[in-house]
Design a protein that fits this description.
Radius of gyration of chain B: 26 Å
CATH class of the largest domain in chain B: Alpha Beta
Number of domains of chain B: 4
Number of helices of chain B: 26
Strand content of chain B: 15-25%
Structural class of chain A: mainly alpha
Helix content of chain B: 25-40%
Strand content of chain A: under 5%
Number of domains of chain A: 1
CATH class of chain A: Mainly Alpha
Distance between the termini of chain B: 37 Å
CATH architecture of chain A: Orthogonal Bundle
Helix content of chain A: over 70%
Oligomer: heterotrimer
Distance between the termini of chain A: 9 Å
Largest sheet of chain B: 8 strands, mixed
CATH superfamily of chain A: MetI-like
Strand order of the largest sheet of chain A: 1-2
Chains: A mainly alpha, B alpha/beta, C mainly alpha
Number of strands of chain A: 2
Largest sheet of chain A: 2 strands, antiparallel
Strand order of the largest sheet of chain B: 6-7-8-3-9-10-12-11
Number of strands of chain B: 24
Largest interface: A-C, 45 and 49 residues
CATH topology of the largest domain in chain B: Rossmann fold
Structural class of chain B: alpha/beta
Order of helices and strands of chain A: HHHHEEHHHHHHHHH
CATH superfamily of the largest domain in chain B: P-loop containing nucleotide triphosphate hydrolases
Radius of gyration of chain A: 25 Å
Shape of chain B: globular
CATH architecture of the largest domain in chain B: 3-Layer(aba) Sandwich
Shape of chain A: elongated
């Protein structure tokens, strides 16, 4: 569609210049605002991401500190020793209550965001980067390389993700745990293993999506004309094709992020992910299950947080998709 | 029964506003008459045609006027009432038959559901009638066709099925919306014959929507010209083509390239772009692009006035146009061009061959892959400062030939020489200099421009890589501005993205970029077929001007014989991957010519109702290049088929003294004798 | 057609071979001695050696793999590392039986519901109903099963008491008992599945609705209902077949969490246990079975799709 005709004066106004320079971004923004639900979801996701960064600092208590019960304290000489404040209902001091070990649920959630959001985010970014590179390459080169890698990806994808995750985790974690590398030990073998597993699972999926998008662009006239002026393959991939796959990439990235959260939380719930006392949200749910009647808050707050997060990410991904579909028309 | 639209107006909702798409249109359609509705893209012709059926997209509404089917008014009917009108009293034949047919239902199911619904036939009766209906559109083996699914039929066959189904209920109004646009010209001719002959035998009024003035001229009785959703002019077809009174109609008719025109003459153009309907003003909708516009035209919308009892026009100045007081034809400026120099070829192609292997890895391993012989034994020369045209229908291999020459799909065998120097068949082994000398312009400007790069980036990058002068970055900006100026665009366009340009502007940018590296040869693959006639004229003129200024040569690939004859001084005609004839434009258009060329010329609808088109029709479908016929590839459809020699032996190339080549078992003299005799008979 | 099936079967065999090799090499990653992991640090060297000999772990990796593969094909799926050293095959087959039962019930619930919702949403595209269905399915589709599962347990088992919170299967259940036991696990799995299939059905139907042949059908004067049922759905539901096949793969994987929430005795729960116990023979057998089931589902879907789509059938 052609730009709406405008008078010469209107064309020179600052707003018009801005619109022209940032044409794509301007349209993107206007359409995003027009989808209130997706917009709100995006804000929520950004909020959760922020929490995963600053959660450590704003948490009122350390995540593994047993809170004292002021009503059950015994003075023993100088020291006052208090019993643990187990299963306390939400109060001003503990807005989300405490769990069966007497730990503050809110603090644990704030700390845990790093594992439930941060870790999937890092893993997703890695697999998106790797998958994009791979997808662009095999989509553009085609031929036998593409055929072989694509078949292999098909096969990899025919193993249900969670099974591949379980098997990989069960072998990768002990391997890493046996390693003496101080870096591995400081990050935690389980965290590295989770990131590796997600990258292993999602790189092929991203690659397949990007490959399909690349195939659609590979034979476009402007790509062929780039070949005809002797551009290198790298230039064609990065400057001619890549901008065209960004929409597919954004949508797929958001979806992968959602599934990565899903996977990390599920593994935590199965007891195969983060290990106590790490307050990963799925693990918190597992640990709170036995005390469901005594301390329902210890269960429902993490469950609610996961639900809100996942739903928001999905709504955001859906909003992005609609946006780009609209753009195509 | 007479069908009428009276003062019909249609609005579209865009965002929160209602925008007028069709304004105050009055049409009268009579039984046994074909009324043409002609307009360029965006004129609202399809919207209007569908609105006559009271079929509107969900965001559109009828905002005024009425539609009369006999004495029944349609705009107030409920959907349930309309269901008794649709298919029964008004039928539609749409543009793309493959998409308009349900892919998972047999032809039988799709034809019989209509007659069973409206005529209350039993399954058996409906099937019998479907057979009869198919017979009436010249499908003999109806049984076969009924059992098929749409994708198993050729395009021409699909469209015949659509026409047969539409006529099966003997409707009062038949609407044909660009029914032949998706078809090849030889198939189009057959379908147009069919429409002409069938409509006269039915008591049906016909509205024929098209952008193609040739088809309108050859088929219609009366014509309405639509522009910006308004009627510009309505008249009987002979009158409209001979003495149009609206400046738009005049411009439209003169922007068609005519094969007999002086090849250095420029086409008349309609400058500017189609109006944006979002800003309908009180002015004449055509005023901005009109050569005859005066102050009044910009202030006040003219009414649709009667020129006489059969002819109406919406223009303040029609009496002056009619009397010839307004000069609508600008003095035709042509730069004196050097005549084509025969003996120094820019491009020499010798015995080029390109085969494709279809099928995946598995097929290749099991030997099930099929071989498509897309281009075979093609030899062609392009001389300096000349334009060579390659004509052919779909499947002729003309685009493959172009892509093989520029090495996008490298040829398997043969030689290519540029300015006498042999160059590699593969792209990687071609030097930057070669790439700069040999440039390509695509059919679709949307394809050619990366939507994420500005115009300046697009042209600048080519300069940076290929320009022999290889300037610094600042020079490149200056050169981009120069290039844009050369194609008639302001330097500010450098900052725009393709989505901010119109189709014609995009094609100009694409051409500017092709010229950026100061090329010796430009291969243009259907350079105008994605554009409207009036814009096509602008591009054709531009290409001619640039040739005269820079001394470049063109190899123009097109399905449009008229355009090629107008543009080129040497023409090659391709059929199933082979050049069956080549020679000067005059030789190819004249006698003798290859039987296929003859049929092609005969099939072209001439945009003049007083000139009756040729009568040679090609029957059957173009064979697939996967299973190319033996001997002469044209023997399966050739109207001048000799006998077993055509099936068994590859025909020789007959060459005349001035280089005119025809690949046929007849000698040139024999062909000339046959064709002269036939022409005499026709007269 | 036959060539197509043969080709797909070949692909299936390759898939299984690659999967088994992949899983096998992953298990080779395990550091040090598997025997030590299983038997504990205190095990005597003699016991470790005996364990390795018993399971063939002292052989070179390639030989271990070919031996295991050969035995697997012959029906000998090895013996469990876990206490009792029971044969793997009967356990896996029994669990598989239970899982298939649950998967079947889930599909029977979710496919009709999802297709109905998807088609309705597409027909009413842009209305509040479409919006509601879209947001609901979007919300449900990404929720981990333990989240929906816990909510369902609390409402329907602990709260209303309509269903059992844990799924113990005993022979001789009446239909009512089956419903009480299978209800919640099947419902939990259905949630995600409904979300997924609904979304794809809506997208497919919407795409078909915008195609020119639908306009042709409407302008034939056919009643809307016939246009939808006879013309649109026939095309729109074709891709849904593939979607269902893919969701079968998901179902089997998703079962891992669901079975663990409800303590349901299926392959998923067994798999988690095998992972925890480093029970390699069990792990390999279950993986192979699950991949086989998934591949068969895909194959069936592809064949069905081809049979129902004349564009492929009569190419």
């Amino acid at each position: 569609m052609a730009a709406p005709a405008a008078s010469p004066e209107a064309r020179r106004s600052p707003l018009a210049v801005l619109q022209r320079r940032w044409w794509g971004f301007w349209r993107f923004w206007r359409r995003l605002v027009r989808q209130p639900l997706a917009f709100a979801a995006t804000l929520i996701v950004l909020f959760f991401m922020m929490i995963s960064i600053v959660g450590h600092w704003i948490a009122p208590y350390p995540y593994d500190a047993v809170q004292p019960d002021p009503d059950r304290c015994v003075a023993r000489g100088e020291a006052v020793r208090c019993a643990a404040l187990s299963n306390a209902p939400p109060s001003l001091a503990h807005p989300f209550g405490t769990d069966r070990n007497g730990r503050d649920v809110l603090s644990r959630l704030l700390y845990g965001a790093r594992y439930t959001i941060g870790l999937p985010l890092v893993a997703t970014l890695l697999s998106v980067a790797l998958g994009t590179g791979l997808g662009l390459l095999i989509g553009y080169t085609g031929g036998a390389v593409d055929e072989v890698i694509s078949r292999f990806i098909d096969i990899l994808l025919s193993i249900p993700a969670i099974i591949l995750a379980l098997v990989s985790l069960s072998t990768v974690v002990p391997t890493l745990a046996a390693s003496q590398n101080p870096l591995v030990q400081s990050i935690g073998p389980i965290n590295i293993a989770l990131v590796l597993v997600i990258v292993l699972l999602y790189t092929p999926i991203v690659a397949r999506v990007i490959r399909a998008a690349t195939l659609g662009l590979r034979d476009r006239g402007y790509v062929e004309l780039a070949k005809l002026r002797g551009e290198s393959t790298l230039y064609i991939l990065l400057r001619e094709i890549f901008p065209g796959v960004v929409p597919a990439l954004a949508v797929e990235g958001a979806l992968r992020f959602s599934y990565a959260i899903f996977l990390v939380a599920s593994l935590g719930f199965l007891g195969l992910g983060a290990q106590p006392p790490i307050p990963e949200w799925g693990r918190m749910v597992l640990d709170a299950r036995p005390t469901l009647t005594a301390a329902p808050w210890a269960l429902w707050f993490p469950v609610g947080a996961i639900a809100l997060l996942v739903i928001s990410v999905n709504l955001m991904a859906d909003g992005l998709q609609r946006l780009y579909q609209e753009n195509e028309r | 029964m007479v069908v009428e639209a009276r003062h019909l107006s249609i609005d579209y909702r865009i965002g929160r506003e209602w925008v007028s798409a069709i304004l105050d249109v009055t049409l009268k359609l009579e039984p046994r008459r074909i009324h043409g509705l002609v307009g360029e893209s965006g004129s609202g012709k399809t919207t209007l045609a569908l609105a006559l059926m009271r079929y509107l997209p969900p965001n559109a509404r009828i905002s005024g006027g009425s539609i009369w089917l006999g004495d029944q008014e349609l705009t107030h009917l409920s959907e349930a009432d309309m269901q008794r009108v649709w298919g029964r009293r008004i039928a539609l034949v749409p543009q793309n038959p493959l998409e308009a047919l349900n892919p998972t239902m047999t032809i039988a199911a799709q034809m019989t559901e209509l007659t069973r619904l409206h005529l209350g036939l039993s399954a058996e009766q409906a099937r019998q009638q479907a057979l009869d209906d198919l017979k009436r559109v010249n499908i003999a083996d109806g049984e076969q066709v009924l059992r098929r699914y749409p994708h198993q039929l050729s395009g021409g066959m699909q469209q015949r099925v659509m026409i047969a189904a539409a006529l099966s209920t003997q409707p009062d109004l038949l609407i044909l919306d660009e029914p032949t646009t998706a078809l090849d010209v030889t198939t189009q001719a057959v379908i147009l014959d069919l429409i002409r002959e069938r409509v006269r035998s039915e008591n049906t009024a016909v509205l024929f929507v098209s952008h193609n003035l040739g088809v309108i001229a050859q088929l219609c009785d009366t014509v309405t010209v639509l522009y910006g959703g308004e009627v510009m002019e309505t008249a009987p077809v002979e009158r409209l083509f001979a003495r149009p009174v609206h400046p738009y109609t005049v411009g439209l008719l003169q922007s068609i390239p005519k094969p007999d025109a002086e090849s250095e003459a420029r086409l008349m153009t309609i400058e500017g772009v189609a109006p944006s309907l979002a800003h309908r003003t009180s002015a004449c909708v055509f005023a901005d692009r009109c050569r005859a516009a005066v102050e009044r035209c910009h202030a006040e919308k003219p009414p649709l006035e009667a020129v006489d009892d059969v002819h109406q026009a919406r223009c303040w100045r029609w009496p002056e146009v009619q009397s010839g007081q307004v000069a609508l034809t600008p003095p035709i400026a042509t730069a004196p061009a050097d005549p084509p120099q025969r003996d120094t070829p820019v491009l020499q192609v010798r015995q080029l061959q390109k085969h494709f292997v279809e099928g995946g890895l598995f097929d290749r391993l099991t030997g099930r892959a099929s071989r498509v012989r897309a281009v075979e034994d093609v030899s062609l020369h392009v001389n300096q400062r000349s334009t060579v045209g390659v004509v052919g229908e779909s499947g002729s291999g003309k685009t493959t030939l172009a892509r093989a020459i520029v090495a996008l799909d490298p040829a398997d065998q043969g030689e290519i020489a540029l300015l006498g120097q042999p160059i590699s068949l593969t792209l990687r082994q071609r030097s930057a200099e070669t790439l700069g000398r040999l440039r390509l312009v695509f059919q679709n400007p949307n394809e050619a421009l990366n939507p994420h790069h500005t115009v300046g980036q697009a042209i600048g990058r080519t300069l940076q890589l290929l320009d022999k002068r290889r300037g610094r970055q600042t020079d490149i900006r200056k050169r981009v501005a120069e290039m844009l100026q050369a194609v008639g665009l302001a330097p500010e366009y450098a900052d725009r993205y393709p989505s901010q340009l119109s189709g014609g502007e995009k094609q100009r940018v694409a051409i500017a970029r092709a010229f950026a590296a100061d090329p010796d040869l430009i291969i243009a693959d259907e350079p105008t077929s994605a554009l409207d006639v009036s814009v096509q004229a602008v591009i054709v003129n531009l290409l001619k001007d640039l040739r005269n200024q820079t001394g470049v040569s063109y190899l123009v690939i097109s399905h449009d014989l008229e355009l090629v004859v107008y543009m080129a001084d040497w023409i090659a005609v391709m059929y199933l991957g082979e050049i069956v004839e080549q020679g000067t434009a005059a030789d190819v258009y004249g006698i003798p010519s290859h039987p296929y060329t003859e049929a092609l010329i005969s099939a072209v609808p001439v945009p003049d109702p007083t000139v009756k088109g040729g009568v040679i029709r090609l029957h059957g479908d173009v064979p697939s290049p996967r299973s190319k016929p033996s001997g002469c590839p044209f023997h399966t459809r050739c109207p001048r088929f000799i006998g077993s020699i055509c099936v068994e032996q590859v025909p020789p190339v007959r060459v005349s003294a001035n280089g005119h080549q025809i690949r046929c078992h007849y000698t040139l003299d024999e062909l000339a004798a046959l064709q002269t005799a036939d022409r005499k008979d026709a007269l | 057609m036959i060539a197509f099936i043969v080709r797909r079967l070949l692909l299936l065999i390759v898939t299984l071979l690659v999967t088994s090799a992949l899983i096998f090499s992953l298990t080779q990653l395990l550091p040090g001695d598997v025997a030590r992991l299983i038997l504990g640090r205190e095990a005597t060297p003699e016991r470790v050696a005996a364990f390795n000999r018993q399971y063939g772990l002292d052989l070179p990796p390639l030989e271990q793999y070919t031996r295991w593969l050969g035995n697997f094909i012959r029906g000998d799926w090895g013996r469990s590392f876990a206490a009792g050293n029971a044969a793997v095959r009967p356990i896996v087959l029994e669990r598989l039986n239970n899982s298939l039962l649950l998967a079947g019930v889930t599909l029977a619930i979710s496919v009709p519901v999802a297709i109905f919702l998807g088609v309705i949403a597409a027909l009413r595209a842009g209305t509040w109903l479409d919006g509601l269905i879209s947001v609901a399915t979007l919300s449900v589709v990404g929720l981990p099963e333990f989240v929906t599962g816990l909510v369902l347990i609390n409402v329907f088992a602990l709260g209303l008491g309509w269903f059992e919170a844990t799924a113990l299967i005993r022979p001789g259940y009446t239909l009512g008992q089956w419903v009480r036991v299978l209800g919640l696990p099947a419902l939990t799995a259905s949630f995600v599945l409904i979300g997924y299939i609904t979304r794809l059905t809506r997208a497919g139907t919407l795409e078909e609705l915008n195609k020119p042949y639908v306009r042709t059908a409407i302008l034939k004067g056919l009643p809307r209902r016939i246009v939808i049922v006879r013309h649109v759905l026939r095309n729109a539901l074709l891709p849904t077949i593939t979607v269902i096949a893919i969701s079968i793969g998901w179902l089997i994987g998703g079962m891992v969490v669901i079975e663990s929430i409800y303590n349901y005795p299926g392959v998923g729960g067994e798999l988690v246990r095998a992972v925890e116990q480093k029970n390699l023979p069990m792990l390999q057998a279950i993986t192979m079975i699950v991949v086989l089931a998934f591949a068969l589902a895909n194959l069936t879907a592809d064949v069905l799709y081809t049979l129902l789509n004349p564009r492929i059938r009569f190419r």
